[in-house]
Design goal:
This protein is of the alpha/beta class and about 350 residues long. The chain contains ten helices and 13 strands.
Length: about 350
């Protein structure tokens, strides 16, 4: 395989850090690796599996010397540099939501719709992390049984807001514990003001991720609906989601109910899912074996379990629980797997 020169924009963030690790773990043939960070970090050296590398600032020259740019620096940066990256004949794989809903920008999960990747105009989008984790389990079921409706509730870790979100959970937890000193009734007396979340996240859950839309759903919830339809190439799917932030550090979980066109049962679903690449079956409730964030953190695969016949949809319905590392499967890993499509 030919080596590729790679640039990571947002290299010091939580996703950027995992992109570096994924390139190494997947034995991606990196020619030259360049790392882009904020102005205040420029010049600093960081240790990577590829050796010590300096942090650089954005420039057109960098993209001229790179084959693939992995962007994880937010919508504004992606929009600002899109045309300049394309002009330098550098493929942009973007982790923000800036271009996901544009018709000429493929929204790709390589295990599902890799064929769309070649029809790009210089940019390929990474799905939302919640969408990507769910899609890995939903897609093989859709192929076999035909999905009609998807009802989802998510339990999303603080790392969904990046390293700053995880740090806020750690800091708030220390603050609350120091304040209550064993008197747990005091936890409610003086809530800690959040900087990155709308309410205190320590010892709390928040049913609010991203901005509320006119229909009462949040943008995070609507991303799941919009993106699954685009990735599956099926606008007929009916999807509803409630997204909840929970006080865990890493890995998102999702409770999912599906209604199918054809009859479905738990055993048939298990047989399919246990053979699905990127999915691990953890489904033995009698032994207390089921997906949990503490197991899924740091793993490439999505865990699925608690598979059971749904009481509402009967033999045309199933219910299950999944956990997946959104920094990996939901972001960095998926981006590097997209890059792998262009190695030949």
């Amino acid at each position: 395989m030919n080596s590729k020169n790679i640039v990571i924009v947002g290299a010091t963030g939580a996703v950027g850090h995992e992109m570096i690790s994924c390139l190494h773990q997947l034995h991606f043939p990196v020619g030259k690796l360049r790392l882009i960070a904020s102005e205040k970090s420029v010049g600093k050296m960081i240790e990577t599996p590829f050796g010590g590398l300096p942090l650089e600032t954005l420039s057109e020259e960098i993209f001229e010397e790179s084959d693939i740019a992995l962007f994880s620096a937010g919508n504004d940066v992606s929009k600002m540099w899109r045309e300049k990256v394309i002009q330098k004949n550098c493929l942009m794989i973007d982790n923000s939501s800036a271009f996901r809903y544009e018709n000429d920008v493929p929204l790709v999960i390589p295990e599902i719709n890799s064929k769309f990747a070649k029809h790009h105009s210089g940019v390929i989008s990474n799905p939302n992390c919640t969408t990507a984790i769910a899609a890995m389990v939903l897609w093989p079921l859709h192929q076999k049984f035909g999905l009609k409706k998807i009802l989802m509730s998510t339990y999303q870790a603080t790392s969904g807001a990046g390293a700053k979100g995880m740090q806020e959970l750690i800091d708030q937890t220390k603050t609350v514990l120091d304040h209550c000193k064993g008197d747990f009734e005091k936890i409610q007396e003086n809530p800690v003001q959040g900087r990155y979340f709308s309410h205190q996240i320590a010892f709390n859950i928040i049913p609010h991720i991203d901005s509320f839309q006119e229909n009462g759903y949040t943008k995070e919830e609507m991303k799941v609906a919009w993106e699954l339809c685009k990735i599956f190439g099926d606008e007929s799917l009916k999807i509803s989601c409630t997204a909840v932030r929970i006080p865990t550090l890493r890995a998102h979980s999702e409770s999912i109910v599906i209604e199918t066109e054809h009859q479905i049962d738990p055993n048939s679903a298990r047989k399919i899912l246990e053979k699905t690449p990127g999915v691990v079956l953890r489904d033995d409730p009698k032994q207390n074996i089921y997906p949990m964030p503490i197991h899924a953190s740091g793993k490439h695969d999505v865990e699925v379990g608690r598979i059971r016949q749904n009481l509402i949809f009967g033999d045309h319905g199933l219910e299950f629980f999944i956990s997946g590392d959104q920094l990996l499967r939901g972001a960095a890993l998926n981006a590097v797997k997209i890059a792998e499509l262009f190695l030949k």
